[in-house]
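Customer ticket, subject: "Can you confirm the structure for Amino acid transporter transmembrane domain-containing protein?"

Message body: Hello, I'm evaluating your service for our small team and ran a test protein. I'd like someone to confirm that this is what the system normally returns, since I don't have a reference to compare against.
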Amino acid sequence: MMMEGLVTNYVEYLNMGLKLVQPSGGAHSKTSLTGVPVGPDMSGMEKMWNIFSAIGDIAFAYSFSLVLLEIQDTLKSSPSENKVMKKASTIGVAVSTLLYTLCGVLGYAAFGNDASGNYLTGFGFYEPFWLIDIGNMCVVLHLLGAYQVLIQPFFAFVEDWSHKKWPESRFIEKEYYIGSYSLNLFRLTWRTMYVIIVTIVAMIFPFFNSFLGLIGAATYWPLTVYFPIEMYISQAKIQRGCFTWIWLKILSLTCLIVALLAAAGSIRGLAVSVSDFELFHSMS
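Agent reply: Thanks for trying us out. I re-ran your input and got the following:
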């Protein structure tokens, strides 16, 4: 997990380096205080939908709560795990917020209203080429680690269900041992096919921003806000109707509204993109 975090931060540093190169090279893009101006190319309604979709992109950056318990399970019992995780989460969220804020601000300073959703693929701008190549390699390393961590609960669910459904199947149950490693043909086959199918689907429908926003909107409120708040209320035995309970509920409701707006913007973006997309063509 530490290596994963280092690679993620390195990607952001490279992104910021790319954005610093553009203005320093003398290129100045059109900018405005409120972003893309409303005009012939963009209506007020279109801008509103894009803002909602962007909120989903931001929410995606904070969907880390899925792996917090797995990380906490790897900590020693002294000092207390909850104290260590509180400190780690505070530092992690602060650093992530700083990096992503710098990424957005520098990106807007460099590319203005033409800023793309994916700075590594969204422009005809590929200089310095070595910085782009290193950035893309770091993205691959980052996704390899993140994919393995985040998809494990789904893999475990499917495999547990299959074991219960077909307990007599040798294909599902048989384990082959190679030294200290075990190999299961069902696990190898279905996981490989899943990754291949998901990768092909992602390449066929490459709506980077809209998909990212939809995933962020779908996971942000229930996993990052609602369940942690409800668990805290239960664990701390906060009385219903008291001041703390009311404000926690208001926080949860506010985040739900934000998530719904983000989901609406992302779904609308997908619907618009589907009407004129080309297979395997980036729609960043």
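A couple of notes from the result: The chain has two domains: 2-165+205-274, 166-204. Residues 1-10 have pLDDT under 50 and may be disordered. Feel free to reply with more questions.
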